[in-house]
Design a protein that fits this description.
By secondary structure, this protein is α/β, with parallel strands linked by helices. The protein has a single domain, classed as Response regulator (Rossmann fold, 3-Layer(aba) Sandwich). Helix content is 41%, strand content 19%. The chain has a five-stranded parallel beta sheet with strand order 2-1-3-4-5, sandwiched between helices. Strand 1, helix 1 and strand 2 form a beta-alpha-beta unit. Helix 1 crosses helix 5 and helix 2 packs parallel to helix 3. The two termini are 13 Å apart.
């Protein structure tokens, strides 16, 4: 089954999405900031990345920019998973080729699972 990198600093959210995704057969690896997320993605080579925007050490938009500049991350599908609205999000996020932009408060874990499946098809 596909491997998902979940880059998110809120551990309750990490556990919620991890449980939902793993119960559907996905392999989930996690990091709680953008700097660790970059290292994780390079080491694990996931099939898809779920990326929060507001995180410590390195924000999601900074991480995405570095990811897209790397050989290992230039083509991996990225879904932004945040509570920042699309209009409030840094413009660089949308300029760096994301597959989808999900506002966490507006979607259930089941909805996110469906978005992951759709993106991976």
């Amino acid at each position: 089954m596909a491997k998902i990198a979940l880059i998110e600093d809120d551990m309750a959210i990490v556990q919620m999405y991890r449980m939902k995704l793993e119960s559907d057969g996905f392999d989930v690896v996690t990091a709680n900031n953008g700097a660790d997320g970059l290292k994780l993605i390079e080491a694990e080579n996931p099939d898809i990345v779920l990326l929060d925007v507001m995180m410590p050490i390195m924000t999601g938009d900074e991480m995405l920019e570095k990811l897209r500049a790397s050989d290992f991350g230039k083509d991996v599908p990225v879904i932004i998973l945040t509570n920042t609205g699309k209009t409030e999000a840094p413009r660089s996020i949308l300029e760096n080729g994301v597959s989808n932009f999900i506002v966490k408060a507006e979607m259930t874990p089941a909805d996110v699972l469906n978005e992951v499946k759709t993106t991976l098809k």
